[in-house]
Write a structure and sequence with these properties.
174 residues; alpha+beta; Aminopeptidase; 7-stranded mixed β-sheet; 33% helix; EC 2.3.1.128; ribonucleoprotein
């Protein structure tokens, strides 16, 4: 199984739409994504990331044997946090539990620390999302704290877990 991250292509829209038209996937993401997620939604997203500032938005398709099975991105923050990026990702349900996202997170973090001036990458999964938390821990992220009552999702108030990886730690792990 060849796992890779690569630049998005408009031809990826169908696979992207299939991955996001799943309520279990959407339940672990922030609000704002339509359901069902259409091919047009996917094309609009792909066009947006392809036209984004490449020093601010680092968005890639997660692929298995060049088939899109998910998405990963890091987004540079602003002002005093300009050398920090927030990490986000998701994987189509059929590919959960196979180590794919762990490899993709490692690939992206290594790329960002070697090719940019970023000092820190952080992620904030819902505290109940143990799969995502394991991905972060396996790739060297440190749990920095639990953000209590930090989100409202599907009518519930949820805690979020704050994980961080710094350039120095990334050099050790990745």
């Amino acid at each position: 199984m060849g796992i890779s991250i690569r630049q998005w292509r408009l031809s990826d829209a169908k696979d992207l739409a299939a991955a996001l038209s799943n309520q279990k996937v959407l339940n672990n993401l922030r609000d704002g994504l339509p359901y069902p997620y259409t091919d047009q939604d996917a094309q609009d997203y792909i066009r947006a990331v392809l036209s984004a500032d490449p020093d601010q938005t680092f968005a890639y398709a997660v692929c298995v044997d060049d088939k899109v099975v998910g998405s990963i991105g890091a987004f540079r923050q602003e002002n005093i946090h300009r050398r920090t990026a927030e990490l986000g990702y998701y994987l189509a349900e059929a590919y959960w539990g196979q180590g794919i996202m762990t490899q993709a997170v490692g690939m992206l973090c290594a790329r960002l620390f070697s090719e940019t001036d970023l000092l820190r990458i952080y992620a904030e999964p819902f505290a109940t999302n143990m799969g995502s938390r394991r991905v972060l821990e396996k790739t060297g992220f440190q749990l920095e704290g639990i953000l209590r009552s930090n989100a409202c999702k599907n009518g519930q108030v949820l805690d979020m877990a704050m994980y961080g990886l710094t350039r120095e730690r990334g050099d050790e792990i990745l």
